UniProtKB/TrEMBL annotation:
UniProt-listed SUPFAM superfamilies: NAD(P)-binding Rossmann-fold domains
Transmembrane segments: 6-28
Gene Ontology molecular-function annotations: 3-dehydrosphinganine reductase activity; nucleotide binding
GO BP annotations listed: 3-keto-sphinganine metabolic process; sphingolipid biosynthetic process
Protein name as annotated: 3-dehydrosphinganine reductase
PANTHER family hit by this protein: 3-KETODIHYDROSPHINGOSINE REDUCTASE (PTHR43550)
InterPro entries per UniProt: KDSR-like, NAD(P)-bd_dom_sf, Sc_DH/Rdtase_CS, SDR_fam
A matching Pfam family: adh_short
Reaction catalysed by this enzyme: sphinganine + NADP(+) = 3-oxosphinganine + NADPH + H(+)
Assigned protein family: Belongs to the short-chain dehydrogenases/reductases (SDR) family.
Organism: Salix dunnii
Compartments where located: Endoplasmic reticulum
Keyword set, alphabetical order: Endoplasmic reticulum, Lipid metabolism, Membrane, NADP, Nucleotide-binding, Oxidoreductase, Sphingolipid metabolism, Transmembrane, Transmembrane helix
Listed pathway(s): Sphingolipid metabolism; Lipid metabolism; sphingolipid metabolism
Amino acid sequence: MAVVNLFYISLLLILPPLFLLFLLSLIVRPRPVQIPIKKRHVFITGGSSGIGLALAHQAASEGAHVSILSRSIDKLEEAKNAIKLSTGIDVAIFAADVRDFEAVQRAVDEAGPIDVLIVNQGVFVAQELEEQKLDEVRFIIDVNLMGSFNMIKAALPGMKRSRKDRGPGSISLMSSQAGQVGIYGYTAYSASKFGLRGLAEALQQELIGDNIHVSLVFPPDTETPGLVEENKRKPQLTSIIASSSGAMKADEVAKKALEGIKSGSFIIPCNSEGILLSIATAGLSPQRSYLMAFVEVVAAGILRIAALCFQWNWYGSIEKWHKQKNCGVSRQSNLFFSIPLFCDAPCLNVMDKSSGTWKLLVRETGRHFSDVSWNACQGLRSC
Ligand SMILES: NC(=O)C1=CN([C@@H]2O[C@H](COP(=O)(O)OP(=O)(O)OC[C@H]3O[C@@H](n4cnc5c(N)ncnc54)[C@H](OP(=O)(O)O)[C@@H]3O)[C@@H](O)[C@H]2O)C=CC1
Ligand SMILES: CCCCCCCCCCCCCCCC(=O)[C@@H](N)CO
């Protein structure tokens, strides 16, 4: 009897997931696809540095015909030489600014029909929006988002025309984990990278009939010349929040990206935090793998809880940072001080600007503090 019961209970536990798996295997779209790169034309923008350069190296060593495009001809020459040195293969180089459609069009025409287009160029300057110049916001959106439109518009006609005799094509866009969740200091950057997602989701529907497959890559902080530059003037909070995801090397990101592109994945995470982030933000994105779809369905609830915990932690850091910034520096030097409300310390050590000496303050009512003697403050926390 017990054995029979056990049999039915395990059946009850196993059957629903199996049924779900079966159902998902029937409905996930688009259908799975493999995209080879050997002997095929891989065109990489921003291929002279960082992740793009690592992608060019890897694609060349896997036997692809590689073209790279970026602005500086010097950096392009340098990249070409480095790839020649390590793989013995010649890559084609094109100097153009992705913001200049005509220049991009000329490069694409010269390069010939593309099989795999990797739109990787990107600029990033982290700063609070209030501090950031509008010109810089425009620059980030222009290069990262409009530049990607220019590139795709220029390459698409040729890619479509040559599809029948050349097998499946791919357009991949280099987003960022900051394109899956908004991060302090990245208003412009996150907006540009979230924009790529909308572009990619819509474009995949438009191109599925042409055997062209779209991918979005979501790297975390990656060791590149671009990151070194970014770190020189990054708000501390941006670094704190972004460190929730581990940093990677450009080669590792390139490897994950290329694997993802070849297996036709729409969303390509790069590290373990990235996998969680991708499942948590799956939304209405296309999914080719019924196994991944299964994981997305089953993990949705628990990952929402994890996501809320991350937000709780991040807002905690922001609050703490504001307290540190605003507590300990007085606004005025009289008896009463106006201190922002989020500064909830009952007692503060502040600089009296008029005398240049430190003063001890104690909270009186609401946001007002008055100076007191050290003894009067002794009993209070955080004095
Ligand atoms: N490094 C990181 O932490 C992360 C990066 N990413 C994304 O990965 C991509 C590559 O980043 P990364 O390798 O770090 O960047 P790098 O700054 O190291 O390289 C950027 C590349 O893009 C080119 N480029 C920049 N602006 C233009 C332009 N207007 N027209 C044509 N080419 C241009 C650069 O060449 P040139 O200046 O000569 O034009 C260079 O080849 C970006 O899209 C970035 O947003 C995503 C997540 C994390
Ligand atoms: C529910 C589970 C959540 C999992 C963890 C989430 C971690 C999010 C971290 C985001 C990091 C963003 C880095 C952006 C890097 C970048 O693009 C810049 N270096 C500019 O190039």
